[in-house]
Amino acid sequence: MPSAQPYPIPTRLNLLLSGGVVAAALGLLWWASQLGWPGRLAVGLLYAHLLLTAYALLHEATHGILHPDPRLNSLLGTLLGWLFPISFTLITTTHAVHHRCNRTDYEMFDCYYPGDSRWLKRVQWYGLLLGIWWWLIPLGNLLLAFTPRLLQSAPFRRARSTRVLFDDFGPQAVKRLRLETLLGLLAWWGVGQLLALDAGAVLLCYALFGYNWSTRQYLTHAFTPREVRDGALNLALSRPEQWLLLNGHWDRVHHQHPRCPWIHLPQQAGGEGYDTGYWRHYGRLWRGPRPCTQPGPEPLSAAAYQDLA
User: Fold this and answer.
1) Nearest alpha carbon to residue 212 among 40, 22, 43, 52
2) Would 268 be classed as within a structural domain?
3) Is there a domain that residue 236 lies in?
4) Is 170 left (phi over 0), alpha (psi -120 to 50) or beta?
5) Residue 143: inside a domain, yes or no?
6) CB 60: neighbour CB atoms within 10 A?
């Protein structure tokens, strides 16, 4: 079992941000529904950035550090998950797999071995950068909720990136995931009726967010050393963007101390500094995957991951 929470959680600030982000997101969706396509595009761009903060708060909840009360942490995580949209159980479980398998062969998106298909690697890589990855997440959520055996079938077991992703889902986790998904669908239906949301406007907002989120997801891990705990980057970013991502640019510090709340990450870094600029590194991603020059590490055990503070 992990030790007691070693860092103070900014509870009031997190509650204010969570409530504000949800209210603002619904307000933007309503606004976009009242406008023609040029206006919808402008509002959609705002939405695409606002939901980066919503995801950052959801990420805190997956680590149990959005609120010190576990029940309220799960409730807030569930609400923020619906906004993404994803089941809180699903993202909590798969994000723990990410921390345990970071830079292993299971998460080797940015490079390839001699025997790998280079064209398939490029399709996967540029699909990630072009926003396709986000669309697969709600779809995978629905599949796992209602046809969980499908994700244990041969195609998913053979694929390196999904081989271990769903191993931690037992019957109880699937039940929670299914309930969260059903309640989320009902919540979205109710919000849509209450605010008279236009389906086209909502899809546009989420298409823009999906691209904005997906293209950033591997940024802090691409082309880093093949090390589970240290295979991430701290990237220099402007102050407004630091707040937008809730210090998500300190990703190596986060992987070293996954139970450290977002507000303490710069202090936790000490004098470590930045590896490179955020946007400079982003430009490198578009050059495509590279040949592997290092062997992959073994995943962390569940006990070793729980011991990280």
Assistant:
1) 52
2) no
3) no
4) beta
5) yes
6) 25
From the list 237, 213, 220, the residue with the least C-alpha distance to 130 is 213
Is the peptide bond preceding residue 85 cis, with omega within 30 degrees of 0? yes
Least confident range from 83-97, 137-151, 268-282: namely 137-151
What pLDDT does 209 receive?
98
Q: What is the pTM of this model?
A: 0.93
What pLDDT sits at residue 309? 65
Give 3-state DSSP helix, strand, coil % of the chain, rounded to 5.
60, 5, 35
DSSP characters for 227-267? -TTT---BEE--HHHHHHTTTTTBHHHHHHSTTS-GGGHHH
**Number of folded domains in the chain?**
1
What residue numbers bound the domain in which 32 lies? 11-219
Find the helix or strand (DSSP H, E) in which 291 lies: strand 290-291
With respect to residue 144, please indicate whether it lies within any of the assigned structural domains: yes
Q: What is the mean pLDDT of residues 288-295?
A: 92
